[in-house]
Write a structure and sequence with these properties.
Elements: E1 5-8, E2 15-18, E3 26-28, H1 31-37, E4 42-48, E5 52-56, E6 60-65, E7 71-76, E8 83-88, E9 94-97, E10 112-114, E11 130-131, H2 140-149, H3 157-162, H4 165-175, E12 185-189, H5 195-203, E13 208-213, H6 216-226, E14 234-238, E15 250-256, H7 265-275, E16 276-285, H8 293-303, H9 324-333, H10 352-363, H11 365-368, H12 376-381
Length: 382
């Protein structure tokens, strides 16, 4: 499954959409969750809070103190009583969705049990999961395990920021051609660590720059590093490129080194068409047909060899490199007039083996996340 995810209450008076990937999924056996679910346990699916959008109705709110002593805002339908979300005060960037309210629950697979010391005696805990007697102080293991099982990507923004000079160079080359007047509204899709979005904000003293990315880790880093009172025209939000929720708000939509991660470019283009004002522009650069063939060939040989092949049994190439002919058709179907579209060869150079290793580690995570963190896989590739 991929975002957007839809769901709602039992009576369907309230409907919601989740426009980013979940962070994890776990079972909670605390007494509060037992009461709330009228069962032996509850389930929680943390997602970036700004990615949850109410599209019909308005849930009611109720405050309670959790078993760990922290305040929680509980959201529910006042007609049928269905509990939909929990917003923990300890983490204002997270919403815990009650995953049983999703329209499609067939893919749900929890990776852990919390508050096992409160579990009902007849409940048999799966020892293969991450099990905690109470509330864990750190959810990193739960996040990483879920991302691994769902074949999702856990970005390391700090490491990426140090090893993305080429992507930054390409983006600045594109930006230099735009002839901005300073009062435009710009949407940067796949903003990553936020450097380019922040560059736009500096060039738009009377406009605004908004960066979106599906990675909660990237958005958190970008917000902490660049946004704030000194840049009131700069903001970031967690949003999947296939489910953009903007309506005629931008003069320019920009994206660099992102869209080759996206499986549904038609959905992306339709969302961009809605987001742009009349006469607005779309400027994108991404990996195209034939991109990184040498690198992918080395990867394909490496993952088929021992000792790595056992770790890639169900692996699917997550990259989508398209040609100019099919992209012209998709652009026109989305209502765009194509002024320039081309496959452009670009070389990437790195600062020795360490620079190459950093690029592999921070850009090719679908491969590197399946192997030990000692860099032996990367060293063998080098």
């Amino acid at each position: 499954m991929t975002a957007p995810y839809t769901g709602g209450c039992q009576c369907r008076r309230i409907r919601y959409e989740i426009r980013a990937e979940p962070l994890t999924l776990y079972i909670c056996h605390c007494q509060e969750c037992q009461k709330q679910s009228s069962s032996a346990f509850g389930m929680s699916m943390p997602v970036p809070r700004e990615a949850v959008v109410i599209i019909e109705g308005q849930p009611k709110q109720w405050q309670r103190i959790s078993e760990s002593g922290r305040e929680v805002s509980c959201w529910f339908c006042d007609e049928c009583g269905t509990r939909l979300f929990h917003n923990p005060a300890r983490n204002p960037k997270i919403t815990n969705v009650k995953p049983g309210t999703l329209d499609d629950t067939s893919w749900l697979k929890p990776v852990g049990n919390l508050w096992t010391r409160s579990s009902q005696k007849w409940v048999i805990l799966n020892e293969q999961l991450l099990n905690y007697e109470a509330q864990p102080s750190d959810f990193t293991q739960l996040f990483e395990q879920f991302q691994s099982e769902q074949n999702c990507i856990m970005w390391n923004p700090e490491d990426y920021a140090k090893n993305s000079d080429a992507q930054l160079k390409w983006a600045r080359e594109l930006r230099a051609t735009l002839d901005l007047q300073g009062n435009e509204s710009v949407l940067d899709i796949g903003c990553g660590d936020g450097k380019i979005t922040a560059d736009f904000a500096l060039a738009l003293p009377r406009g605004r720059s908004v960066g979106v990315d599906s990675s909660a880790q990237m958005i958190d880093y970008a917000t902490r590093t660049y946004a704030g009172a000194r840049r009131p025209n700069l903001s970031f939000a967690c949003n999947d490129a296939r489910s953009l929720g903007f309506d005629t708000q931008f003069d320019l939509v920009f994206s660099n080194a992102t869209l080759h991660w996206i499986d549904n470019h038609q959905a992306f283009l339709q969302g961009v068409s809605r987001a742009l004002r009349s006469g607005g522009r779309l400027i994108i650069s991404c990996g195209g047909k034939g991109n990184a063939t040498d690198v992918l060939q080395v990867f394909s040989e490496l993952v088929a060899s021992k000792p790595w092949s056992d770790r890639f049994g169900e692996f699917h190439n997550p990259y989508f490199f398209y040609g100019d002919q099919e992209y012209t058709l998709w652009l026109e179907e989305a209502g765009f007039k194509v002024e320039h579209l081309a496959l452009v060869p670009k070389d990437m150079t790195h600062d020795g083996q360490e620079g190459l290793a950093g690029w592999i580690r921070t850009t090719w995570m679908p491969f590197t996340h399946r192997v030990p963190r000692d860099n032996s896989f990367i060293r063998e590739k080098n």
